[in-house]
Amino acid sequence: MSDEELLILYRNLDTRRNAFNQLVRTYQQKVYWMVRKIVIDHDDANDITQEVFIKAWSGLENFRGDSRLYTWLFRVAHNESVNFLKKKRRRFFVPIHDVEGELADKLESDPLMGGDEIQLKLQKALLKLPEKQRLVFNLKYFEELPYEEIAEITGTSVGALKASYHWATKKIEDFLQATD
Protein backbone atom coordinates (compact mmCIF):
# COMPACT_ATOMS: atom_id res chain seq x y z
CA MET A 1 0.00 0.00 0.00
CA SER A 2 1.42 3.39 -0.96
CA ASP A 3 1.82 6.30 1.44
CA GLU A 4 -0.96 8.14 -0.35
CA GLU A 5 -3.36 5.20 -0.02
CA LEU A 6 -2.51 4.82 3.66
CA LEU A 7 -3.10 8.52 4.30
CA ILE A 8 -6.43 8.46 2.46
CA LEU A 9 -7.55 5.52 4.61
CA TYR A 10 -6.24 7.23 7.75
CA ARG A 11 -8.12 10.46 7.06
CA ASN A 12 -11.38 8.54 6.72
CA LEU A 13 -12.70 7.97 10.26
CA ASP A 14 -14.25 4.64 9.24
CA THR A 15 -10.93 3.19 8.03
CA ARG A 16 -8.51 5.07 10.31
CA ARG A 17 -7.73 2.10 12.57
CA ASN A 18 -7.17 -0.21 9.60
CA ALA A 19 -4.80 2.29 8.04
CA PHE A 20 -2.86 2.65 11.26
CA ASN A 21 -2.67 -1.13 11.71
CA GLN A 22 -1.28 -1.37 8.18
CA LEU A 23 1.28 1.34 8.98
CA VAL A 24 2.41 -0.57 12.08
CA ARG A 25 2.60 -3.90 10.23
CA THR A 26 4.60 -2.29 7.44
CA TYR A 27 7.14 -0.40 9.51
CA GLN A 28 7.27 -1.92 13.01
CA GLN A 29 10.23 -4.24 12.34
CA LYS A 30 12.29 -1.54 10.62
CA VAL A 31 11.57 1.02 13.33
CA TYR A 32 12.36 -1.50 16.07
CA TRP A 33 15.76 -2.39 14.59
CA MET A 34 16.65 1.23 13.96
CA VAL A 35 15.84 2.02 17.60
CA ARG A 36 17.60 -1.14 18.78
CA LYS A 37 20.83 -0.10 17.08
CA ILE A 38 20.75 3.11 19.10
CA VAL A 39 19.62 1.90 22.54
CA ILE A 40 20.83 -1.74 22.26
CA ASP A 41 18.51 -3.17 24.92
CA HIS A 42 15.54 -5.20 23.60
CA ASP A 43 13.06 -4.07 26.25
CA ASP A 44 14.02 -0.40 25.84
CA ALA A 45 13.75 -0.73 22.06
CA ASN A 46 10.30 -2.30 22.39
CA ASP A 47 9.11 0.50 24.67
CA ILE A 48 10.50 3.20 22.40
CA THR A 49 9.01 1.56 19.31
CA GLN A 50 5.60 1.61 20.99
CA GLU A 51 6.13 5.25 21.88
CA VAL A 52 7.03 6.02 18.25
CA PHE A 53 3.75 4.55 17.04
CA ILE A 54 1.78 6.34 19.75
CA LYS A 55 3.31 9.60 18.53
CA ALA A 56 2.62 8.57 14.95
CA TRP A 57 -1.04 7.96 15.80
CA SER A 58 -1.41 11.45 17.23
CA GLY A 59 0.79 13.15 14.65
CA LEU A 60 -0.28 11.44 11.46
CA GLU A 61 -3.23 13.76 11.05
CA ASN A 62 -0.78 16.66 10.63
CA PHE A 63 1.57 14.75 8.32
CA ARG A 64 2.02 17.01 5.29
CA GLY A 65 3.61 14.47 2.98
CA ASP A 66 6.81 16.47 2.47
CA SER A 67 8.68 13.20 2.99
CA ARG A 68 7.83 9.52 2.85
CA LEU A 69 6.06 8.01 5.88
CA TYR A 70 9.09 5.79 6.40
CA THR A 71 11.36 8.83 6.61
CA TRP A 72 9.00 10.60 8.99
CA LEU A 73 8.73 7.53 11.25
CA PHE A 74 12.50 7.18 11.32
CA ARG A 75 12.85 10.82 12.34
CA VAL A 76 10.38 10.25 15.18
CA ALA A 77 12.18 7.01 16.15
CA HIS A 78 15.56 8.71 16.15
CA ASN A 79 14.32 11.58 18.29
CA GLU A 80 12.65 9.21 20.76
CA SER A 81 15.80 7.07 21.00
CA VAL A 82 18.10 10.03 21.56
CA ASN A 83 15.73 11.52 24.14
CA PHE A 84 15.62 8.16 25.93
CA LEU A 85 19.41 8.01 26.15
CA LYS A 86 19.61 11.62 27.35
CA LYS A 87 17.04 10.92 30.08
CA LYS A 88 18.93 7.81 31.08
CA ARG A 89 22.18 9.77 31.41
CA ARG A 90 20.50 12.50 33.46
CA ARG A 91 18.55 10.10 35.65
CA PHE A 92 21.64 8.18 36.68
CA PHE A 93 24.11 11.08 36.41
CA VAL A 94 26.19 8.91 34.15
CA PRO A 95 28.80 10.29 31.73
CA ILE A 96 28.24 9.31 28.11
CA HIS A 97 31.24 6.95 27.98
CA ASP A 98 29.80 4.99 30.93
CA VAL A 99 26.48 4.63 29.10
CA GLU A 100 28.41 3.30 26.09
CA GLY A 101 30.13 0.78 28.37
CA GLU A 102 26.79 -0.33 29.77
CA LEU A 103 25.39 -0.73 26.25
CA ALA A 104 28.47 -2.72 25.19
CA ASP A 105 27.94 -5.08 28.15
CA LYS A 106 24.31 -5.55 27.10
CA LEU A 107 25.46 -6.40 23.59
CA GLU A 108 27.48 -9.34 24.84
CA SER A 109 24.76 -10.72 27.11
CA ASP A 110 21.79 -10.24 24.76
CA PRO A 111 20.80 -13.44 22.93
CA LEU A 112 18.70 -11.48 20.41
CA MET A 113 21.71 -9.46 19.27
CA GLY A 114 23.44 -12.74 18.45
CA GLY A 115 25.68 -12.96 15.46
CA ASP A 116 29.25 -13.96 15.17
CA GLU A 117 32.29 -12.36 16.71
CA ILE A 118 32.72 -9.93 13.81
CA GLN A 119 29.13 -8.69 14.17
CA LEU A 120 29.66 -8.15 17.89
CA LYS A 121 32.87 -6.21 17.19
CA LEU A 122 31.05 -4.07 14.64
CA GLN A 123 28.30 -3.25 17.14
CA LYS A 124 30.90 -2.34 19.77
CA ALA A 125 32.69 -0.15 17.23
CA LEU A 126 29.40 1.59 16.49
CA LEU A 127 28.99 2.41 20.17
CA LYS A 128 32.32 4.27 20.05
CA LEU A 129 31.07 6.60 17.33
CA PRO A 130 29.57 9.99 18.07
CA GLU A 131 25.78 9.84 17.99
CA LYS A 132 25.39 11.54 14.60
CA GLN A 133 27.99 9.33 12.90
CA ARG A 134 26.39 6.21 14.38
CA LEU A 135 22.98 7.25 13.07
CA VAL A 136 24.30 8.05 9.61
CA PHE A 137 26.21 4.77 9.46
CA ASN A 138 23.18 2.74 10.57
CA LEU A 139 20.84 4.40 8.09
CA LYS A 140 23.28 4.16 5.18
CA TYR A 141 24.87 0.77 5.83
CA PHE A 142 22.09 -1.27 7.46
CA GLU A 143 18.95 0.45 6.14
CA GLU A 144 20.54 1.26 2.75
CA LEU A 145 18.82 4.63 2.63
CA PRO A 146 19.99 7.18 0.07
CA TYR A 147 21.74 10.27 1.43
CA GLU A 148 18.78 12.43 0.40
CA GLU A 149 16.45 10.50 2.70
CA ILE A 150 18.97 10.51 5.53
CA ALA A 151 19.19 14.28 5.07
CA GLU A 152 15.42 14.53 5.60
CA ILE A 153 15.60 12.39 8.74
CA THR A 154 18.54 14.22 10.29
CA GLY A 155 18.09 17.74 8.92
CA THR A 156 21.68 17.64 7.67
CA SER A 157 23.09 18.41 4.24
CA VAL A 158 24.03 15.55 1.93
CA GLY A 159 27.66 16.72 1.89
CA ALA A 160 27.88 16.67 5.68
CA LEU A 161 26.29 13.20 5.73
CA LYS A 162 28.84 11.87 3.26
CA ALA A 163 31.62 13.25 5.46
CA SER A 164 30.03 11.72 8.58
CA TYR A 165 29.71 8.35 6.87
CA HIS A 166 33.32 8.50 5.67
CA TRP A 167 34.61 9.30 9.16
CA ALA A 168 32.36 6.66 10.73
CA THR A 169 33.68 3.94 8.41
CA LYS A 170 37.25 5.07 9.07
CA LYS A 171 36.75 4.94 12.86
CA ILE A 172 35.06 1.54 12.63
CA GLU A 173 37.91 0.23 10.51
CA ASP A 174 40.46 1.56 13.00
CA PHE A 175 38.56 0.03 15.93
CA LEU A 176 38.31 -3.36 14.23
CA GLN A 177 42.03 -3.37 13.38
CA ALA A 178 42.94 -2.38 16.94
CA THR A 179 40.89 -5.24 18.43
CA ASP A 180 42.45 -7.95 16.25
Uncertain regions spanning at least 5 consecutive residues: none
User: In terms of structural class, how would the helical and strand content be classed?
Assistant: mainly alpha
Shape: globular
The level of helicity is over 70%
The fourth-level CATH homologous superfamily of the largest domain is RNA polymerase sigma factor, region 2, helix turn helix motif
Q: Quaternary status of these chains?
A: single chain
Strand content: under 5%
Instruction: Write down the Rg.
Output: 17 Å
Largest sheet: none
What is the residue-averaged pLDDT?
Answer: 84
Distance between the termini: 46 Å
- Count, helices: 9
CATH architecture of the largest domain: Orthogonal Bundle
Number of strands: 0
Under the CATH scheme, which class of the largest domain?
A: Mainly Alpha
Count of the domains = 2
* CATH-defined fold name of the largest domain: Rna Polymerase Sigma Factor, Chain: A
Topology:
Elements: H1 3-11, H2 16-39, H3 42-59, H4 69-92, H5 96-109, H6 117-128, H7 131-142, H8 147-154, H9 158-178
Pfam families: Sigma70_r2, Sigma70_r4_2
Keywords: Sigma factor, Transcription, Transcription regulation
Family: Belongs to the sigma-70 factor family. ECF subfamily.
Describe this structure in words.
With 180 residues, the chain is mainly alpha-helical. It has two domains: 1-114, RNA polymerase sigma factor, region 2, helix turn helix motif (Rna Polymerase Sigma Factor, Chain: A); 116-180, Winged helix-like DNA-binding domain superfamily/Winged helix DNA-binding domain (Arc Repressor Mutant, subunit A, Orthogonal Bundle). The chain is built from nine helices and no strands. The protein has helices spanning 3-11, 16-39, 42-59, 69-92, 96-109, 117-128, 131-142, 147-154, 158-178. Helix 7 crosses helix 9 (158-178). The mean pLDDT is 84. One of its GO terms (biological process) is DNA-templated transcription initiation. It comes from Arundinibacter roseus. Residues 120-169 form the RNA polymerase sigma factor 70 region 4 type domain. It holds the Pfam family Sigma70_r2. One of its GO terms (molecular function) is DNA binding.
